[in-house]
Each structure stands twice: as C-alpha cells, then as structure tokens.
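Reminder to self: tokens first, then the designed residues, so the page reads top to bottom the way the pipeline ran.
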C-alpha cells in the first residue's frame, strides 16, 4: 500500500505513530502473523533526505524505549517513484478533495 500525504495537513511523525502503533508488528521480518514471504515485509519508502532522517530517528527512539519485544526490522529505503507537487498545485488538490 502506498500512502501519499500532504505535510501541510499531517506531519510525518504523526503518520509514523499510526504506522508503528496499529498497522502491523514491525519486528517480524518478512512475515505478518501466519503469512510469510518478502511480500509481507515491513517497509517505509522516503522521498527525500528529511523524511529518511525523521524516519530513522523515530525507529531509533522506539528501539531505545523497548516498546516492542524485539528490535524493529522495518526496512527504510528510498522511494523509486515519488511525486512532488508544488505548493499551488498541492493546495488545488487539497481543495478538490475537501481537506
């Protein structure tokens, strides 16, 4: 699943909080519950260096706090396809979508 977000509406930190708290078990490598295989890996794809830094920092904080029984194995990798909208275009999309 790909999530496209608008930083003017929600922060990356808020998305990461949801991702790590309700979406899945980030300590399971290539599996989610009884399902196994690389298609079940946990991954976050960043679009720029700031997103990478924020995501890595967030994961490090979670690991240090030992909120999960094992180390987080979520892959953090550069997105191969990113779409970036300029501010006026982003505002037009938001207006049309009701945000």
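Designed residues (99 positions):
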């Amino acid at each position: 699943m790909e999530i496209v977000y608008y930083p003017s509406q929600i922060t990356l930190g808020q998305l990461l909080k949801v991702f790590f708290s309700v979406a899945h078990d980030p300590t399971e490598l290539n599996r989610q519950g009884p399902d196994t295989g690389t298609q079940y890996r946990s991954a976050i794809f960043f679009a720029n260096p700031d997103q990478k830094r924020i995501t890595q920092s967030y994961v490090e904080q979670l690991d240090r706090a030992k909120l999960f029984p094992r180390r987080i194995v979520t892959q953090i990798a550069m997105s191969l396809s990113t779409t970036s909208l300029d501010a006026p275009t982003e505002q037009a999309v938001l207006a049309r979508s009701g945000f």
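The chain has one domain: 12-97.
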